[in-house]
Specification:
Structural class: alpha/beta
Distance between the termini: 69 Å
Helix content: 25-40%
Strand order of the largest sheet: 3-2-1-4-5-7-6-8-9
Shape: globular
Largest sheet: 9 strands, mixed
Strand content: 15-25%
Number of helices: 14
């Protein structure tokens, strides 16, 4: 087959792939796709990532290709387009969803792909080096931790610890487990490329992933897209692309950070040593630096910080909002005692004013009032004195609320973190818009 005939063939397959992806997306609700973390890689983004990855792979290297969350094959098409058949040793993919996988197997038939319809995290990693991939590329499932069952989290925790020696937080999303588990699937000096949410750079549960990226492998580059330019039309998540090599970082290792624009033409660029990156707790601040290469000044400021004026705390985390946060109608339905209900504010998008007024009972005047269930009494006292609350808590145990991670680590499980009310609410993850030109809001 000539080069032109080969390109024509794979472009025909790509045309069918896009139609298949559209059909699959329609069949599942947004809620189902959120739970499974199924967000297809946009074709142009896949091509940009592949073309950049090509420059990091040895020109004469025979590629052993692996995609642990294959989907319909956006990365595989871009690979076939960027590389000739002479570059390919073998290609393998894993797809957990048979509704997607079975159709995709037919689509890429006769292209040399070995696509396995199974859970990658439950598959046996190769035991010898020639069977490991030297090029791994993946858009891992973006399933948040509350969509993972407790026993599944424990299994994934044990697996990542076994493979990397890192004990990952149970608040981590599924993509964090994918990155660490894949370590044993990658050959020494192999290249891995991950399209992942940017959140890991700042949140506490991202610390273990950052530890892996700075101590277990050689981190080559991270490109973070601007939150204003979402890469996924169906997921409100800021994305990053991570390139790494499977080898221990050298003492003089330097990492390239780019931000905004496109992967090929970023708005900002900096290079910093691996030591400075290890000592930097939050990486998203790198998006604020100018086009520099001197890393000694990154993260330093002579100006004032919020912590100079305020005590800053995150919002309360209940572990089961649908159970603990209640509307007046639900309170009436379950006849819950008011002394164990604390008025709270809804999501900031429901707050049209930057000043919240209170009624005579000191409850905020809102269109959608909400209350937090918070009780520290022992179970026997509730059972004796508050039978309606006792019945509601029993309802929670029947559906497993008491076994959730945060609830297991509270005593009693239905109590909440003790916190004085704050004078101000600061929204720090807003996006600029015509209606709201300032992403930061301070609400009194």
């Amino acid at each position: 087959m000539s080069v032109d005939e080969r390109l024509l063939k794979i472009h025909q397959i790509e045309s069918e792939r896009l139609k298949l992806q559209a059909r699959l997306d329609i069949k599942k609700s947004q809620e189902e796709r959120n739970k499974l973390g199924q967000f297809a890689t946009p074709p142009q983004l896949a091509m940009d990532i592949m073309e950049t990855s090509k420059g990091l792979i040895g020109a004469s290297e025979r590629i052993r290709f692996l995609d642990p969350a294959f989907g319909t094959g956006a990365f595989y098409f871009s690979f076939l387009k960027c590389f000739s058949d002479l570059h390919l040793n073998w290609a393998r993919g894993y797809e957990i969803d048979p509704h997607c996988g079975n159709e995709t197997v037919k689509l890429w038939n006769n292209t040399g792909l070995d696509l396995r319809i199974t859970d990658f995290t439950k598959s046996e990693p190769p035991s010898i080096e020639p069977n490991r991939a030297n090029f791994l590329i993946c858009n891992p499932p973006y399933s948040r931790h509350h969509h993972l069952a407790s026993d599944e989290k424990l299994r994934l925790q044990r697996l990542t610890n076994q493979m990397t020696g890192i004990e990952i937080s149970q608040l981590s999303g599924l993509y964090c487990y994918f990155i660490l588990i894949s370590h044993t699937w990658l050959a020494d000096d192999g290249l891995a490329c991950w399209l992942a949410p940017s959140e890991f750079m700042d949140v506490n549960y991202g610390q273990q992933l950052k530890e892996y990226l700075t101590t277990h492998v050689t981190l080559l580059r991270i490109h973070r897209f601007s939150p204003k330019e979402l890469q996924f039309g169906d997921a409100l998540v800021s994305s990053s692309v991570i390139w790494l090599k499977k080898r221990k970082p050298s003492t003089n290792c330097e990492v390239e950070f780019t931000y905004g624009g496109t992967i090929k033409e970023p708005e900002k660029h900096c290079v910093l040593s691996i030591d400075s990156l290890r000592n930097m707790r939050k990486w998203n601040r790198l998006s604020n630096v100018a086009r520099v290469s001197n890393t000694n000044t990154i993260g330093k400021s002579n100006g004032s910080k919020l912590s100079d004026f305020f005590i800053v705390r995150r919002g309360l985390v209940t572990g089961a909002n649908k159970f603990f946060i209640l509307s007046p109608a639900q309170i009436s339905e379950y006849n819950l005692p008011t002394e164990f209900l604390t008025p709270i504010l809804p999501s900031s998008r429901y707050l049209s004013s930057n000043e919240i007024q209170a009624d005579d009972a000191k409850n905020p005047i809102l269109k959608q009032p909400l209350f937090l269930l918070n009780c520290s009494l022992p179970e026997h006292a509730i059972q004796s004195n508050y039978p309606s609350l006792w019945q509601y808590l029993q309802r929670g145990t029947r559906i497993g609320i008491h076994e959730r991670y945060l609830c297991q680590h509270r005593s009693p499980w239905y109590s909440q973190e003790k916190r004085k009310p704050s004078l101000f609410l600061c929204t720090y993850m807003g996006r600029e818009s015509v209606k709201n030109p300032k992403p930061f809001r301070f609400i009194l």
